[in-house]
Description:
By secondary structure, the chain is α/β, with parallel strands linked by helices. It folds into two domains: 224 residues, 2-enoyl-CoA Hydratase, Chain A, domain 1 (Alpha-Beta Complex), CATH 3.90.226; 215 residues, 2-enoyl-CoA Hydratase, Chain A, domain 1 (Alpha-Beta Complex). The protein has 18 helices and 19 strands. β18, α17 and β19 form a beta-alpha-beta unit. It is elongated and about 90 Å long. It starts with 14 loop residues before the first helix and ends in a 16-residue tail after the last helix.
Amino acid sequence: MSASVLKTSVNSKSPEFEKNARRIVDLLTKIKNEEEQIRHGGGAKAIDSQHKKGRLTARERIAKLIDPGSQFFELGIYAAYEMYEEWGGAPSAGTVTGLAKVCGRTFMLIANDATVKAGAFFPMTAKKVIRAQNIAIENKIPSIYLVDSAGVFLPLQEDVFPDTDDFGRVFRNNAVMSSMGIPQITAIMGMCVAGGAYLPVMCDHILMTEGSGLFLAGPALVQAAIGQKTSAEDLGGAKMHSQISGTVDFRELDDDACITRIRALVDKIGAPNPSPFSHTKAREPLFSAEEIYGIFSSDPGKQYDMREIIARIVDAGEFEEYRAESGETLLCGYSRIGGWAVGIVANQKKHVQTLARGSDQKRMEFGGVIYTESAEKAARFILDCNQNRIPLIFLHDVNGFMVGKDAEWSGIIRAGAKMVNAVANSVVPKITVICGGSFGAGNYAMCGKAYDPRFMLKELYDSVRATYEHQTDPRYAAARLWVDAIIDPAHTRDALIWALEAAALNPEIREFKTGVLQT
């Protein structure tokens, strides 16, 4: 039986460990170089143009807005990766989103990148903003919008407007967030045109810098439509909206003054309601997070012990394993991460020798496969976590459910349905980390994207592939926002702490009901 404090048997000098570590470091170097390129947005010329207007770039604004010395946990940096190339591309979908501390409070930041097609909305831009808003809604995270956008990218407008995850949903979410009491602050720091003009006006506070524009139609379109000649300043400048229309709450001289005002407003926002989840002082893991590089193997034929990964994520290596001697291809247990109590459901990648159900015959169970006993164990564990208000962490490296006559006779479909039901109806926060593979119905049972995880994270373990395997590249998933972020495996704990702190901002837990369970 496992002790409450996890031990390690990792040999960091072994050839296999060193091989795995080198491969991950090489991949990380490639990814980090790509991310740095993405952060340049539209490139040096576009950045210079933004500066000549007396404006900061989106990332420069964020750097000045967040608390000094604090980190920006970016979400969706790979959005639209390798998409819209016929239009010159749209790095990070022309917008920057993520979590940050402002005056000590966690905020969702959404900033248009005017260096990418003047901040125009591509189809993926709308989806990225909506995903950020949905995270804010689910977790009741106050939000700040830094607006600098020319509106919809017109050549693709038919793909931007019509559906529930398209442009119009942004304004619907503004209204819903306001009704829920989620603070929203908008700063117009450039152009804010056409339908996009509704976003700031549907927020709690509106700031606007000199030289910016806020109008449903610009001067050229107004003249074409009704024959009226007017300047951009008279039509929708900061002075007009401050003195005449009364639309703007604060008129600011420039970006720096605007950011100072935002921080002053944030400083006055009342404290959130207390979290219902258990939290104590955080303790560091017992083992180095960098050792994760050498532990994991992406070779399907290789085994590794998922407990070694868990030991490098959780506080003080403590893991109260649930039913440790049953259903051993799924690990379930209670722990703390950053002081937050969590229930962990993780695929075990070691093969396990056990007794066949209902007999004394030995059999081998393959790592990464969900068997009847492991599904039933996980379902019950998930129920217990909901009963006790404990957030759930899912660590994926799953091939799917077991198949074959023995599996069918044991009731694998019934057990799998029970686990899927428990996951689908879970009311505590669910946070998913894909460590390796995530295939078939195993993805559903382990709280895949369709099962509403508050955050969906992907550790960088996959090789960057080409040809027919292109769609299995983690960047392909990140480009389409199937995952919120590709993370350095050594930073898994940090990412989970961000997610848990965000989830704790929503104190409301609805009644837990599963409906009919197949028993």
